[in-house]
Amino acid sequence: AGSARNIGIESSKGKYLLFLDSDDYYEPNTLKPVLELALTNFLDLCFFRMHVENNNGLGYISGKQPFDLYTLYNGVHIINYGFSFSSACNCLYSVDFVKKSGVRFINCHTAEDVNFTMKLFPFAKRLIFTDLIVYHYTFNCNSTNRKTTPKKKYQLILGQLEAMSDIKRYLDIVPLPPNIKNLYHQIINSSTVSCF
Fold it and tell me: Which end of the chain is less crowded, N or C, counting CB atoms within 10 A of the terminal residue's CB?
């Protein structure tokens, strides 16, 4: 997915972009209000919620963060105060912001979204969290990506380690505030330990 998303970033001609996985979709009539909010507030990032649905049609709403809704924040603030990194699909991105950042997706079996968002979000100057449920995520327990064969487990662990190693290298070359670097080192250590 990383290569395809990077092609999408480079090819983008509009003001904003989104990332959508092939088995997911956007809830009806939800993109326009998010785009209007982003345009009106000159946002780098506009976060929304996800409806996660499993094979049985059961689901829940994810993407809640510990921040006031429709309040202007910056990336350093949200990371300092408990932002939880996860999917790259629950956010509208300014094309100009992403392109100028130089941040792109890595190609690994897992954690490329966390890698991308950890590198990009500290540089956001203007972002807002909404309560809009925009993204419909289909969690397919039977997909090949969810199989738990020994080979698949190995690939997932390797992907997680690759993503965290890439963040560690990134921290050595990119000027981030010391407190953000410390938080990121904690995330790297925790993620690495969780692989074993």
Answer: C
